[in-house]
Amino acid sequence: MKESIALLSELIQNKCVNPPGNEIKSIQSIQRFLQEHDIECQVFESAPNRGNLVARIPGTKNGPKLMFGPAHVDVVPVENPDEWEVDPFSGTVKDGFVWGRGALDMLYIVVTQVQAFIQLQKENFQPKGDLILLIVSDEEAGGRYGAEWMLENHPEQIKTDYLVTEAGGLSIAPGKLVFMIGEKGGAWKRISFKGTPGHGSMPFDSDNAAHKAAQAIIKLRDYCDSKIPLTTEYLNYLAKGLELGFIQRIMLINKRLLPFTLNNLKKRDLQMAKVVHGLTRMTLSPNIVQGGTKVNVIPATAYIDVDIRTLPGQDDEYVVTHLKKALGVLAKEATIEALSAEEGGFTSYGNASPASSEFVSAMEKAVQQELPDSTLVPFIMPAVSDCRFFRERGVEAYGFSLFDPETPMSHLASLAHGTDERISIKTIELSQKVYYNLAKFFLIQ
Questions:
Q1: Residues 173 and 191 in one domain
Q2: Which structural domain range is residue 97 located in?
Q3: HSE-CB for 14 with a 13 A CA cutoff
Q4: If you ran DSSP here, which 8-state letter would residue 126 be given?
Q5: What is the C-alpha separation between 53 and 136, in angstroms, rounded?
Q6: What is the CATH number of the domain that holds 328?
Q7: Model pTM?
Q8: In this structure, are 168 and 62 located in the same domain?
Q9: pLDDT for 304-352, tens place per residue?
């Protein structure tokens, strides 16, 4: 475990903040670490100071291929380092945790997959199909120089049938651990309005673009909360996995009762209410508002950048249709367009892998080796990951690791991209074991 902790601290200290990324520092750290254990790997540079790493244990037969990864080494920025208990890029070990930006998202998975791979190689593991290790750059900015780049430029190096990456193994109830069968898409849009400029001292009956943007924000909020079409398909997975009683199940999956359920749930567990809300609909969150040039000039233009998260099956036509419905009469004055890549925009759509399969059974068996009475509960991740690139190509892709069951799900949700991000040493230990177990159970059956 000392090796794992040391490598995790080093990756945090490398400070591969995206943008700009500079992930080659951590790619080279992992390359060196593998070479110290006599493991060959290849590094593919996708841009200056950016790269991706592949290692492989070849299969002895024509069996299914399994990938550890794609596991990304880039991390998000730290907005207020002074609010942290420790230096966010120190990789400090304290109170049974490794602290630092990226520890949870997702450097602990990078480290535990690398270590499980090394352990298997040391044991002269002979899988029936290839075991592939893929470490990538650029996930936090859309994957153009990471997973997507590898699939476009070196697809033969990372061809797989199954993969496990971020994140799963979170305790949602005693003995019940969620794993991610899919994810919501990100379809970020800019909604722009035009007005008529004029003097700010005479606002009566003015054609103010900022007024329109303000009205649009309220309309988007109300539509998302009470008028947008609902689905309970993914809550049904949750209800079944948690083995809820009849009344509890109806309260959760009945669309008419859902608003009442959400209102009660937010009083007891706001974080879980947010999760349930997001699993039932496309969400609309207006997060950037801008307009005007000077305080005494009525603005001629204003715009809203909206973070839109779609469920599987909801395409661009669905998104635009419901934005127009939400805006109502304002839709005639609105210009709706995708947020440009230069401004951080990218588009993906909700996607999912089967909730049950031979591979899912192998994952559950791998977990039960460490936590004997545990079962897996299918879940949809609210955020976007590199899994989407592989699911588009028919790969069964899952978010899968194993957290210390004493760690509440709401606690983890607040730490991802947040202040005092950290991962417990117990979680590092359990995740490393469960990846090792999975390869053993699935690739030598």
A1: no
A2: 2-183+350-443
A3: 26
A4: -
A5: 6
A6: 3.30.70.360
A7: 0.89
A8: yes
A9: 999 999 999 999 999 999 999 999 999 999 999 998 877 777 788 899 9
